[in-house]
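Review this fold:
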Amino acid sequence: MYKETIINCGARRVKSPPEKTALIAVLRAPRDLAIAAEDRWYRIPLRKAPRGGFTHIAFYQPACFKAAGKRIACYAEVAGCSTWRRIDILPDEPGHPGALQLYVKYSLGPLIKLPREILNTSGSRVSFGYAPLRRLGQAEDILGVFNVVPVENMMCAALKAAGLGFRREHVILRGGKVKYRLDFALFCKRGKLDIECDGRCCHSTPGQHAKDAARDKWLKRFGWATLRFGEHEVLHNAKVCVGEIKTAVRSLGGVRELKKPREPSGAAQRARICQAPRHLREYRT
């Protein structure tokens, strides 16, 4: 059965966290929560197993949970972990693309319900990440779990106040798939402008800087000019940021139509990005 006990969760060297830490896991379907509750285990592909140590797993219920979605309602302590082929832990899904791939199976204690559910009131897109366990009882919303400053919301308010028409979370498709999502897209008479709000945690590493540069270069090939503003700039100099944006808009002939800014809805609303720390990732489970 390819079963092997592992100590470091995913065959990676990890240190025990200095305090009780929760991995925020995004559930793929209600069935996964049922498995965690009844069979007391959760899975992640071995090749994407978390690098950091954690003592608990908190389960984020996305929109597929319908009325019970967009929230963290419960968590569980991790009792241990082992590696299995996916087909061995989910034998009723032999046709799954990852059926023969190795997964880390985390054994869990009983599910513990939070006294107050943590709601995703901002409509942010939530990825896997870590948070101190104590923060689950303190956070007012999902952004509070990740200790995220809502710089995109602040920029949105500033652009609205300036009367600039924009599209938030504009999706760029390539080959029928999402290539990039732009924080704010402004369509001008002589070009297109991409406004990015770079959170300190997400965009402070050399590796991320290189990815951002490659992204901007790719967008430039398709007629997009990109302006990036750091978290500190948006927090303390929003007027200066808007001034730079206005200058760029004028150089591109002005906005095509100054329509009332609209918030994303439907799939775009669910896809809004939560600016969580750089180690946050999404997993196919």
Notes: The mean pLDDT is 85.
